[in-house]
Amino acid sequence: MSASFVTLKLATTLDGRIATASGESRWITGPEARQAVHRLRAEHNAVLVGVETALADDPELTVRLDGYDGAQPARVVLDSHQRLPVTAKLARTAGDIATYVVCGSPPRADLLDLGVRVLQAADQGRPSPRAALEALAGVGLNRVFIEGGGQVAASFLQAGLVDAVEWFRASMVIGAEGRPGIGDLALSALSDAPRLKRVDVREVGSDLWERYERI
């Protein structure tokens, strides 16, 4: 089993928010930044979100670039209790694009019927980030692109499993009531904070793209 490489993508306001308090997030960043995200998806073999993101945004998580004819990355939902509805785009298109639910309970028959592949990575509980990566690596998915939400980002950072961060920052401010790009890390000291090294910064349209690597 090969080691996983994990990239965390953030698309936030200047104050680190990914949505308003009501959940509105389309679109914080501009079209150039979104095209860059599609190119990054194509460099990974799995795109991962938490179930809250899947429920709120109903995303496709596909590579949509003019002229792109490469493989689509697998879509992965961290979903402890298999709350992904059969009406979700991810479930409805699972027969065409590999789609996984990583959970802590036996597979739901209606998800299996649609072609969703269920990986039970915990026993009736919430799979840890490390357990989720091990389950994905077991099916050959070892380049993982995390796209949300805030608590998923925090859990992988807290576990020390993020190898790279791709941060797209828009020139707007939402305020403290907005939803944070990174959830609670429960830090008691600065020395406990995850630290990364910035390796690149560039403009993409009206947004800023900052790239970081694990130290």
TrEMBL record:
Xref: PANTHER family: 2,5-DIAMINO-6-RIBOSYLAMINO-4(3H)-PYRIMIDINONE 5'-PHOSPHATE REDUCTASE, DIHYDROFOLATE REDUCTASE FAMILY PROTEIN (AFU_ORTHOLOGUE AFUA_8G06820)
This protein's record includes keyword Secreted: no
Taxonomic superkingdom: Bacteria
NCBIfam families in alphabetical order: ribD_Cterm
InterPro entries tied to this protein: DHFR-like_dom_sf, RibD_C, RibDG_C, Riboflavin_Biosynth_HTPR
Pfam family, one: RibD_C
Lineage: Bacteria, Pseudomonadati, Pseudomonadota, Alphaproteobacteria, Caulobacterales
Residue ranges of every copy of the Bacterial bifunctional deaminase-reductase C-terminal domain listed in the record: 5-208
Keywords: NADP, Oxidoreductase
Name used for this protein in its record: RibD family protein
Pathway: Cofactor biosynthesis; riboflavin biosynthesis
